[in-house]
Amino acid sequence: MKRPLPDTDTVKTAIDIVLKEAAARGRHPTVTAVERHLGIPHATFHRHYRDVIDQHFRPHLHARAQPHGNTIGTTNTSTNNLLRLRQENRDLRRTLALYEEAIRQLTLENEALRQGTTVVPLTRPAADT
Q1: Among 7, 22, 68, 117, who pairs with 29 as Cys (CB 3.0-4.6 Å)?
Q2: In whole angstroms, what is the distance from residue 61 CA to residue 96 CA?
Q3: Can you say whether the dihedral through the CA atoms of 55, 60, 29, 24 is positive or negative?
Q4: What is the torsional sign of CA 27, 48, 63, 67?
Q5: Full 3-state SS string of the chain
Q6: Which residues contact 113 (CB under 8 A, 6 or more apart)?
Q7: Measuring CA to CA, which residue among 13, 8, 9, 22 is closest to residue 63?
Q8: pLDDT in tens, 119-129
Q9: How far apart (Å, rounded) are the C-alpha atoms in residues 28 and 32?
Q10: In this model, does residue 8 exceed pLDDT 70?
């Protein structure tokens, strides 16, 4: 014997419950969660309650959707990323300065060797910290 399907008001109440639970947990609400809440198979739910899904569930999804830039914790994450990128930039500039000095020294040594003059080793500059 088949059990009777819930009426439209019961389905709307279940949708509201699922929407509130999803919002409280910070999750995206799904029709599958409504189906599980009611204990109705997917195909049966869509066959009998398609209009309720379109009129009651979907509009709430778009109303609850937030733009990606307004999520909680974005400011903190952005600040952390900015600080990390600035530190990486400083490190890369220091490394580049060291490589520039090494290339300069090698160029001078190469020129001295080609001309047959004495190679004078240059002192290293003090490292910036």
Answers
A1: 22
A2: 51
A3: negative
A4: positive
A5: CCCCCCCHHHHHHHHHHHHHHHHHHCCCCCHHHHHHHHCCCHHHHHHHHHHHHHHHHHHHHHHHCCCHHHCCCHHHHHHHHHHHHHHHHHHHHHHHHHHHHHHHHHHHHHHHHHHCCCCCCCCCCCCCC
A6: 119
A7: 22
A8: 766 666 665 54
A9: 11
A10: yes
| Contact of 42 with 35, CB cutoff 8 Å | yes
Asked whether residue 71 carries a pLDDT value surpassing 80, the answer given is no
Token couple for 95 = 């490394």
Q: How confident is the model at residue 63 (pLDDT cuts 50, 70, 90)?
A: low
The pTM of the full predicted model, rounded to 2 decimals, is: 0.47
Query: What is the number of other CB atoms lying within 10 angstroms of the CB of residue 112?
Result: 13
Taking a C-beta distance cutoff of 8 angstroms, is the pair 75, 52 a contact?
A: no
Please say whether the beta carbons of 31 and 52 come within 8 A. Answer: no
The phi, psi pair for 78, rounded to 5°, reads -65, -40
- Using the predicted structure, report yes or no on whether residue 67 has a pLDDT greater than 70: no
